[in-house]
Design a protein that fits this description.
It contains 19 helices and 25 strands. It is of the alpha/beta class and 552 residues long. Strands 1, 2, 3, 4, 5, 6, 14, 15, 16, 17, 18 and 19 form a 12-stranded mixed beta sheet that branches. A 4-stranded mixed beta sheet has the order 20-22-23-21. Strand 12 and strand 13 form a beta hairpin.
């Protein structure tokens, strides 16, 4: 069986200008990065409202194939003669060299050139890293050069970032070695995907809005306890300059030549998990149907897409596709990982509440139409598939098989037809909370309605953060909850559909530029670490041909 990278390399891609022609983009609106990648220099002006969001049940170590299904669905719609465009996130190098892998799909349902996209692509994430660390450099220089803003070195909240999993950088000391190196203080790194600059890029509507959001960043507090912003630091335009090209979305293609706009890469477990608003709105400007996806399970990515991105962008999906697999549901029902390929109807039945919980949240809390996509694996049995379909019927949720990993767009025809039929049905997006609610009430709304919690516990640090949020008049911001992706709860060991638990909030961070509050729960970290044997240790590149092996 060929690996993903071998499949991708066996396909002859179309020149990027041919992909652009499918979206009626002119050469003047393209900035080519070689033959198969381009940036799009066109102002979004949405002409369609046929927006489809792809999400999933809680992920497991098996991998549920949400991005693969998104790509397959787009190819399936294209085979049905529809003018369709994908709007996806960019992969981070952290998971690529870690354990999770890349984010370009798999099998016959991939976006390409997959090596480029999964590695440095067009440099967007590096630009975000640079912009973030430019602010850090200016902060420490400002403190050393007289500290005109009277910044408290012990109360600088802005962290450095890098696009790699590196737990050793979570908490560090800087400026050691003498006064010429600056003023010593404690600092730390977040992964770039969790940085506020990443969120700002993905939520900005244009350069003007980007600059306003950069200016609104709270970098720390002065010695009287007043918030100090990036605008006061005088760094707004310099930071925006480093992001001017990164602000433009990237155009690539699927292995079957379906256009894909790929831009922005926040994780959904520790950030807001959606590609850029500019990319989504641009796709809605140039295609009749737009398929986008949000990270991890519906309790994370879809919640943030609906409660944060849809508010800011004034968009709403007509249909939500919920990806599920038999083996993930069996895992939620208690099987060991090594038994995922074995038929086990008892475990499947025990794990089914995870699927049902996500269906009910999307339909009852948010009021959106739901189609369940069963991402079929060759080890799935007819009895297992029928049990999943039966559960969907009981929830009045259309269900379709998807075999795009093995068959590409042809394996997604049934799903595409089901989704197209659902687009004609009325839906009315509701939010999980009102922005005017208190911070605690908004957190409890998501925790109780979406996660199934009975209560929320706050650390002393979290209580102090809420007091500061109220003092600064930021209580009306939406919330972005950082928690484990493996469970509805904040405890990764609670599988299935846990209820009645108490969720623990460790801290709340103000993201003034992004325009939301990051609620840090449980043991979640904004800088991931590497596993004992990360994927990087199994990668090779040929000295002569430069062929990469072990990437995927």
């Amino acid at each position: 069986m060929k690996s993903d990278i071998e499949i991708a390399n066996s396909v002859t891609l179309l020149p990027i200008r041919k992909i652009a022609e499918k979206l009626n983009l002119t050469e003047n609106e393209l900035e080519n990065y070689g033959n198969y990648k381009a940036k799009i220099a066109k102002k979004p002006s949405p002409a369609t409202d046929n927006l489809i969001l792809v999400t999933a049940i809680n992920p497991t170590a098996f991998g549920e194939g949400k991005t693969t299904t998104s790509i397959g669905l787009a190819d399936g719609m294209s085979k049905l003669g529809k003018k369709v465009c994908l709007a996806l996130r960019e992969p981070s190098l952290g998971p690529v060299f870690g354990i999770k892998g890349g984010a370009t799909g798999g099998g016959m349902a991939q976006i390409a050139p997959m090596e480029d996209i999964n590695l440095h692509f067009t440099g967007d994430i590096h630009a975000i890293t640079t912009a973030n660390n430019l602010i850090s450099a200016i902060i420490d220089n400002h403190i050393m050069q007289g500290n005109e803003l009277d910044l408290d070195p012990d109360n600088v909240v802005w962290k450095r970032c890098m696009d790699m999993n590196d737990r050793a950088l979570r908490s560090i000391q800087i400026a050691l070695g003498g006064e010429k190196n600056g003023v010593p203080r404690y600092d730390g790194f977040d992964i770039t995907a969790a940085s506020e600059i990443m969120a700002i890029l993905c939520l900005a509507s244009d350069l003007k809005d980007l600059k306003k959001r950069i200016g609104d960043i709270i970098i720390g507090y002065d010695k009287k306890g007043n918030a100090v912003t990036c605008r006061q630091l005088g760094a707004v335009d310099a930071v925006a300059i480093t992001l001017k090209d990164a602000l433009k979305p990237n155009l690539v293609q699927t292995l079957e030549g379906t256009p894909a706009i790929v831009h922005g890469g926040p994780f959904a477990n520790i950030a807001h998990g959606c590609n850029s608003i500019i990319a989504t709105r641009l796709a809605m400007s140039v295609a009749d149907y737009v398929i986008t996806e949000a990270g991890f399970g519906a309790d994370l990515g879809a919640e943030k897409f609906l409660d944060i991105k849809c508010r800011v962008a004034n968009i709403k999906p007509k249909t939500v596709v919920l990806v599920a697999t038999a083996r993930a549901l069996k895992y939620n029902g208690g099987i060991a990982k090594e038994d995922g390929a074995k038929e086990n109807l008892d475990a499947l039945e025990k794990g089914m509440p995870n699927l049902v919980g996500h269906i009910r949240n999307l339909k009852e809390v948010y009021g959106v139409n739901v189609v369940v996509a069963v991402n079929k694996f060759i080890t799935d049995t007819d009895k297992e598939i029928e049990m999943i379909k039966d559960a969907c019927r009981k929830e009045n949720a259309p269900c379709a098989l998807c075999e795009c990993w093995a068959k590409g767009g042809e394996g997604s025809i049934q799903l595409a037809q089901t989704v197209l039929a659902e687009l004609d049905k009325p839906s009315d997006l509701k939010f999980a909370y009102d922005l005017n609610m208190s911070v605690e009430d908004k957190i409890f709304a998501v925790a109780s309605k979406i996660y199934g919690a009975k209560s929320v516990e706050y650390s002393e640090q979290a209580k102090a953060s809420i007091a500061m949020i109220e003092k600064l008049g930021k209580s009306n911001l939406p919330i972005c909850i950082a928690k484990t992706q493996y469970s509805f709860s904040d405890d990764a060991s609670k599988l299935g559909r846990p209820t009645g638990f108490s969720m623990k909030v460790r801290d709340i961070e103000i993201r003034g530029g992004a325009g939301f509050l990051v609620v840090v729960c449980g043991n979640i970290m904004l800088m991931p670490g590497l596993s004992k044997r990360p994927s990087a240790l199994g990668m090779t590149i040929d000295d002569d041909t430069q062929e990469i092996r072990g990437l995927f």
